[in-house]
Each structure stands twice: as structure tokens, then as C-alpha cells.
Amino acid sequence: xxxxxxxxxxxxxxxxxxxxxxxxxxxxxxxxxxxxxxxxxxxxxxxxxxxxxxxxxxxxxxxxxxxxxxxxxxxxxxxxxxxxxxxxxxxxxxxxxxxxxxxxxxxxxxxxxxxxxxxxxxxxxxxxxxxxxxxxxxxxxxxxxxxxxxxxxxxxxxxxxxxxxxxxxxxxxxxxxxxxxxxxxxxxxxxxxxxxxxxxxxxxxxxxxxxxxxxxxxxxxxxxxxxxxxxxxxxxxxxxxxxxxxxxxxxxxxxxxxxxxxxxxxxxxxxxxxxxxxxxxxxxxxxxxxxxxxxxxx
Length: 298
Ligand SMILES: Nc1ncnc2c1ncn2[C@@H]1O[C@H](COP(=O)(O)OP(=O)(O)O)[C@@H](O)[C@H]1O
Ligand SMILES: CC(=O)N[C@@H](CCC(=O)OP(=O)(O)O)C(=O)O
Description:
Layout: H1 3-25, E1 29-34, H2 37-40, H3 42-57, E2 61-66, H4 69-78, E3 85-86, E4 89-90, H5 94-117, E5 122-126, E6 133-140, E7 143-154, H6 156-164, E8 168-172, E9 174-176, E10 182-184, H7 187-197, E11 202-207, E12 212-213, E13 222-223, E14 225-227, H8 228-236, H9 244-256, E15 261-266, H10 272-278, E16 285-288
Parallel strand pairs: 1-2, 1-11, 2-8, 5-8, 11-15, 14-16
Antiparallel strand pairs: 3-4, 6-7, 9-10, 12-13, 15-16
The chain binds adenosine-5'-diphosphate and ligand 2.
């Protein structure tokens, strides 16, 4: 067989490899938490949006929940304030809340614009709209960190309606409490709450690291499949720190509340979402129920 024919066959094989995954996720809800470097780098940003748009066009029901922590910190610095975090959560006073909402709103509409540009109808929606995300004040180990909210209720009906009308919802992690005050929500928390409420088939967290490491300083210790009980053990033994702590807790919560597949993916890898979903390889760290099957080869 000549070389050019082989090239075509290789391409066809990639498409055939995707077939069982296209069947499995057809009409299923997939929540993508989009944050980290993949939001700052323009090329990566475009690739993530292409991936999610492709998921939509092949018949899945993706929902994007975006962050923007790096951009918020940049603006907080610009106005002469110092960004501050406790356990991966931003300490949010009134001025920080105002900035955070401005920045997240801008990020939200930029993402809508990119998706629209690829021919898919997107709706950007904040957790405030239609009571999508109702929150209560959240504390960090008992410490008051200001206007930071814990999602206590998701109005899933809005998202079902948007999906039904074939829109791609893009959610901004800001919500209201019972007294209608504005709260900043960690985007991982928002994505987990939405995945639970929507009984998502998959929840994928795009982040800035390959996945969960036993020792973050040793790349050899990347864990490709992590059971819930092992994850608890790693946290108790102090192997998990910083922003990975709320992320892993959210993964566990999602798995324990019926989300079938939860993944932490390296958003720095071009098209990481497509590679994870459509190939036999599987990348990053998959979090698994204690009784669940290992993916082994995915
Ligand atoms: N055991 C671990 N494995 C992987 N990452 C870890 C671990 N412990 C701490 N981390 C840190 O957690 C970070 C991921 O959290 P974060 O930066 O908040 O992500 P994002 O901004 O995408 O939500 C990693 O970049 C890493 O520095
Ligand atoms: C309470 C809290 O920490 N809110 C986050 C919301 C944005 C976010 O989570 O962005 P990433 O996912 O990109 O980090 C913040 O203010 O940074």
C-alpha cells in the first residue's frame, strides 16, 4: 500500500475508534469545567472551544462552566489590591466581588462569541439568572472569607430548557443567597453542583497539571485511575494541596452523587478533551467509585 493511502486509512481509523464513544455519549450531558492556562493562552482557548463545539455537533449535550481566577487576580492586582486565597478559595470582600463579577462576565461573553463563531448557538448565563445557582455563605475551615458561596440549589430546569432548544449553555460562577446578595463561587464547586443536578454522564475538569500526583514534584507518580477511598487517603496523608484539594473533593462528591465519569485533564495539552473522550487511550486522572470498574485502556 502506498504511503498516501496509509495516511487516509490512519485517519479513518481514528474516526472509527471514536464510534463507540459517540454512541455512548449520544444525547448525554457532559459538564466541562474550563479554567487555568487553557483560558489564558489564546490558541489553547480556541482549541477547547473547538472541542466542546464538536461534542455538541456530534450529538452530545455539553455545558461549559468557566473559571477565570487568573484574570480576576490580574485585575485585583491592577487596582492595587493583593489577591488572597484560603484552601484554594479567593477571599472576596465587596470590592473584590465587584471586580470578579465584571471579569467573569467578560470571560463569559468572550466564550459565547467564540462558540457562536463556530456556528453553534451558545447562551451565556450567570448563576444569578433565573435562580440558576442559589448559595449560602461558605467558610474555609471556619474562617470568614467574605462573599464566597457554597451552591445549595441548582435550578436545573433552565439548563434542560436550553439544551432542549439546542443551545450550548456557558455558566459563569456567580450566584445569589437568600437575601439576593451576590456571591463568588469557585468554578469547580459550580461545575460539580451542575453535574450532579443534571445527572451528567461525564464531568471533566481542565486544569494546569497532568492530573493527580502522589508526589506533585515527581512526574513519575501521576495516578491515571484513582478510587474514592484512595483519594480520601491521599488527602488525609497530606499528598494533596492547594487548588487540587477542592477539585478532588468535588470529584468525589460528583462520583458519590451519580455522575458516572469524572476526570481531571491537563488543559495545556491541545485538544485534551477530544483525546480523552474519543480515543482508547484516556489521559489525566479518572476518579472512580470504589466498586466501579477500572477503565483499563479506558
Ligand atoms: N497531589 C497533587 N497532584 C496534582 N496537583 C496538586 C497536588 N497537590 C497540589 N496540587 C496543585 O493543585 C493545582 C491545581 O489546582 P488549581 O491551580 O486551583 O486549578 P484550576 O485553576 O485549574 O482550578 C496544581 O497546579 C498543583 O499545583
Ligand atoms: C471563590 C473562588 O475562589 N472563586 C473563584 C472563581 C473563578 C475560578 O474558580 O476560576 P478558576 O477555575 O480559573 O480558578 C475566584 O475568584 O478565583
